[in-house]
Description:
It is a single chain. The chain has helices at 30-38, 50-53, 76-88, 107-117, 129-136, 175-181, 194-203, 233-239, 257-260; strands spanning 15-19, 41-44, 61-64, 93-97, 121-124, 151-154, 158-160, 166-168, 185-188, 211-216, 224-229, 246-250, 266-268. The strands form 3 sheets. A 6-stranded mixed beta sheet has the order 6-9-12-10-11-13, with helices on both faces. It has 9 helices and 13 strands. 27% of the residues lie in helices and 20% in strands. It is α/β, with parallel strands linked by helices.
Amino acid sequence: MNELEDPAYLAPGAVALVGAGPGDPDLLTLGAVKALRAADAVVYDALVSPEILAFIPPGRELIAAGKRGGRPSASQSDICDTLVELAREGKRVVRLKGGDPFVFGRGGEEALRLAQEGIPFRVIPGLTSGIAGPAYAGIPVTHREVNANVALITGQERAEDPEGEHLPHITRVDWEELGRIFPVLVLYMAMRNLHLVASRLLSGGRSPETPVAVIRWATTPRQETMVSTLGRVVEDSAACKMDPPAIVVIGEVVNLRKKIKWFNDREIIPPRPGE
Length: 275
Ligand code: SAH
């Protein structure tokens, strides 16, 4: 398709903030492919899969800006500096981020910085893992008989102080209230704080029998899905080593997986001693 090869899609000296989707290259947008084909330099996150980086033509500048939870990583201001420098060198710059750049992706901060510096930019949204991930697990995040709203929540809200130190704010979230308001909660970056989140949802009145799905490496060939309950999800996740990256879906929509599961993901069955 020749229209995907369009150098004019991204002007020299401009930046595209591009969502790569959750992993499956089929979930890239045509805009993302056009931007990747046109880019001189791509600054990409650790969660972006090699199959997606393969859309970048050989010989282009590739810069890893890994920002994985808990690992040493380039600070946000370093990443913004890099984008500004590359654009000022007259390059066509793609900032490639997992999922959607504006959903827990800090794309807003990068857009603000580019706007402030007067650097032209465009935003190419991507499919977010909190919606596409459950879909690949056979779970619609809304279903008419279950919910008329859905909450997308980070389990790891952080603020950066001027020295780049991370300060957790997760305990300030009113989990009890969120659990009462939203029939379905979709959690990003929640594995580390799952004990806190689950216990506070329970103390807010959610039933321990509420179904919960944990979906790892969603939309990729190594997708693993574990179904548990709010009362058991912490021990089950530990027993089954459901490490990040994972999306947690809480609510009755999880039950639809039994009938709607279509993707050949690995079913992780928590051990039930005595059964
Ligand atoms: N902007 C991204 C989210 C970045 S935050 C988006 O819109 O999807 C990083 C978190 O996203 C991870 O901790 C995990 O909770 C989730 N995530 C991203 N890709 C994922 C995947 N393929 N499978 C499961 N979770 C994923």
